[in-house]
Amino acid sequence: MIVALGSLKREAIGIIRSGDYTLVDAPEDFLAYRPESHDFPAIVLSGTGSERARRATKWAIEEFAPESIISFGFCGATKEHTHAGDIVIAARIMDLPGTPFEWSIVDDTNSLGPDRTVLLAARTAVEVSGLDYHHGTIVTVSKTATTPGTKSWLGEVINATAVDTESHAVAAAATDAEIPWVVVASVLDDRDFDFPTIVDRHDSGPYEKRITAYIKHVFNTPQDLPALLRLGRSSTRASSSLTTFMAAFMEAHATLTSIEQHPA
């Protein structure tokens, strides 16, 4: 079985709807779904933040005993020509703990690389499905990179292709358990997009804020309405790309695994 680790339900909703899933009991407020067919991965959603992702991954390994793990979800673009809905496949995962003020001296000794077979399955999936994609470093930071300046700095100084808040923790937990892994993310926000403050979800669960929270925010800060509408459209594109990708990935992974197990 493959386990897909994500953070938010809206990242996974298309995948869940496209398969036959059963909601299973999970600790804390994590969400976990068991597929009725091996054509789909088990899905575990941790909420945001590295510590949540680490705990959810460790639990998922104990619960599902996966043969491989894929970390999936939304990310922010750090390069000019990376746009909402594009897929980013991580060649490396790097962790930048602390605040941006502590990033001036970058230590890449904690960077991790994916398993060759699952990486090849991911690259095959985007090729056959026709998705726009990028292959590069994804940086995990402790708090969502919301400003163009922060995202640009990560792209220029770290040479990152994208940024998130969970994937390094998933990769590290999988590495510790000696389970093959890959990280694939779908771009939610362009490099030059400036997040409204209400979107910051540091260390929170897998559910979205209620619509009443956004209505109240727009009432008090009407200038954020265009950005929120744009973010909603980007979220739909990013989720659709993940849904398309996951179906192609599962097929590619099954084919490659069969070839490795039964070479001609």
Overview features:
264 residues; alpha/beta; Rossmann fold; five-stranded mixed β-barrel; 9 strands; 23% strand; globular
Structure description:
- The protein is an alpha/beta fold.
- It has helices spanning 9-18, 50-64, 116-129, 148-157, 167-176, 211-220, 225-261; strands at residues 2-6, 21-24, 31-35, 42-45, 68-77, 87-96, 133-141, 160-164, 181-189.
- The chain has one domain (2-261): Rossmann fold (3-Layer(aba) Sandwich), CATH 3.40.50.1580.
- The chain has a 5-stranded mixed β-barrel, surrounded by 4 helices.
- Strand 7, helix 4 (148-157) and strand 8 form a beta-alpha-beta unit.
Strand content is 15-25%
**Average pLDDT figure:** 89
Anisotropy-based shape: globular
- Fraction of residues in helix: 40-55%
Uncertain spans? none
Instruction: From the 3D structure, determine the CATH topology.
Output: Rossmann fold
Query: Total strand count, please?
Result: 9
Give the topology string: H per helix, E per strand: EHEEEHEEHEHEHEHH
Q: How far from one another are the termini?
A: 24 Å
Q: How many domains in all?
A: 1
The radius of gyration computed from the alpha-carbon positions, rounded to a whole number of angstroms, is 18 Å
Level-1 CATH class name: Alpha Beta
Secondary-structure-based class equals alpha/beta
Explain the layout of strands and helices.
Elements (H helix, E strand, L loop, with lengths): L1 E5 L2 H10 L2 E4 L6 E5 L6 E4 L4 H15 L3 E10 L9 E10 L19 H14 L3 E9 L6 H10 L2 E5 L2 H10 L4 E9 L21 H10 L4 H37 L3
Parallel strand pairs: 1-4, 1-5, 5-9, 6-7, 7-8
Antiparallel strand pairs: 2-3, 3-4, 5-8, 6-9
